[in-house]
């Protein structure tokens, strides 16, 4: 089987990478074979659609495969992946995207809380949660029915 018994004597591994979803099957097969023939230690595949697609690509490869699946439900059989020479499966950037979304949601919530504090004491009609302080007072924007208001000191 591809990848079985392979060990790397040095600390450097050369991995060829190709996007199987952005090229024709013929191009992907040609590219992966060229990587193997050039001495790549492994091949990383992104964009594999399903097992039939992977089987076509993996046929004849002797190097280990790394698969970036982005959670593709059609590629979730670990035993079958191993039979096809897949040694590493990466679910893409899901953790990174989740962290970015959590940061965005947190900042959006904080902004809404701050705008409620700025607009709320002056009038009850600013329900958008979007506003800002300027030199003259509070100016509520994006749909506030009151518009620009002066603060208590002015």
Description:
- With 154 residues, the chain is an alpha/beta fold.
- Helix 1 (25-37) packs across helix 2 (51-58).
- The protein has helices at residues 25-37, 51-58, 78-83, 94-119, and strands at residues 15-19, 42-46, 65-68, 86-90, 131-134, 137-140, 148-150.
- The protein has two domains: 15-92, no CATH class; 107-150, no CATH class.
- The termini are far apart.
- Strands 1-2-3-4 form a four-stranded parallel beta sheet. Strands 5-6-7 form a three-stranded antiparallel beta sheet, covered by helices on one side.
- The chain is built from four helices and seven strands.
Features:
154 residues; four-stranded parallel β-sheet; disordered C terminus; elongated; alpha/beta
Produce a short descriptive summary.
With 154 residues, this protein is an alpha/beta fold. The chain is built from four helices and seven strands; from the N terminus they run E-H-E-H-E-H-E-H-E-E-E.
Identify low-pLDDT runs: 121-143, 145-154
Please state the CA-atom Rg, rounded to the nearest Å: 27 Å
Please tally the β strands and state the result. Answer: 7
Query: What share of residues is helical?
Result: 25-40%
CA-CA gap between termini:
80 Å
Strand order of the largest sheet: 1-2-3-4
Mean pLDDT: 78
Element pattern in H and E: EHEHEHEHEEE
Shape: elongated
Tally of alpha and pi helices:
4
SSE blueprint:
Blueprint: E1 15-19, H1 25-37, E2 42-46, H2 51-58, E3 65-68, H3 78-83, E4 86-90, H4 94-119, E5 131-134, E6 137-140, E7 148-150
Parallel strand pairs: 1-2, 2-3, 3-4
Antiparallel strand pairs: 5-6, 6-7
């Amino acid at each position: 089987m591809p990848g079985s018994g392979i060990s790397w004597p040095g600390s450097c591994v050369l991995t060829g990478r190709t996007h199987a979803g952005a090229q024709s099957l013929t191009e992907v097969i040609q590219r992966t074979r060229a990587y193997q023939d050039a001495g790549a230690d492994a091949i990383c595949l992104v964009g594999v659609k399903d097992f039939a697609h992977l089987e076509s690509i993996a046929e004849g490869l002797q190097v280990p495969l790394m698969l970036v699946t982005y959670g593709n439900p059609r590629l979730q059989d670990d035993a079958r992946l191993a039979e096809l020479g897949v040694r590493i499966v990466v679910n893409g950037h899901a953790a990174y995207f989740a962290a970015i979304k959590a940061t965005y949601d947190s900042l959006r919530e904080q902004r809404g809380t701050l705008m409620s504090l700025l607009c709320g004491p002056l009038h009850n009609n600013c329900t958008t949660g979007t506003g800002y302080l300027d030199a003259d007072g509070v100016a509520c924007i994006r749909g506030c029915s009151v518009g620009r208001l002066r603060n208590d000191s002015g």
